[in-house]
Design goal:
Helix content is about 65%, strand content about 10%. The chain is mainly alpha-helical. The longest helix has 17 residues.
Length: about 120
């Protein structure tokens, strides 16, 4: 998927990743309860997701399912963030996270282990 997803579109995808297939009516009810969207807003966002190829819609019942994986969207969004805020430099992102002092010792340990595993591969 190459088109940028907006946070509203990711909210629809999150429900689909969590629940699998859902009708537009079910999505509208869940998003109304969760964040206060009206039915029209939900249907508009679903339509945008379908146009971008992020959601597949089938009939009858306007049933929706994610056409992209959560991992695919996370990777795309992460690289876009690195490009936009850190000049394409992942090490500057990591430096900002570590330098913030908000990374726990456990998270640092996990990061070290990920790097070690990548180096061994």
């Amino acid at each position: 998927m190459t088109e940028k997803l907006f946070s509203s579109e990711i909210k629809v995808l999150e429900l689909l990743w969590e629940n699998g297939e859902m009708s537009a009516k079910e999505l509208a009810a869940a998003l109304s309860e969760k964040i206060g969207w009206g039915k029209t807003t939900t249907y508009t966002v679903i339509k945008k997701c379908v146009e971008k190829g992020a959601v597949l819609r089938t009939e009858p019942g306007f049933v929706c399912k994610a056409a992209v994986s959560k991992n695919e969207v996370q990777e795309t969004e992460a690289f876009e963030l690195v490009d936009r805020l850190f000049g394409g430099s992942p090490d500057l992102l990591v430096s900002a996270l570590i330098g913030s002092g908000k990374i726990s010792p456990e998270q640092l340990k996990n990061l070290r282990e990920m790097v070690r595993n990548m180096e061994e591969e």
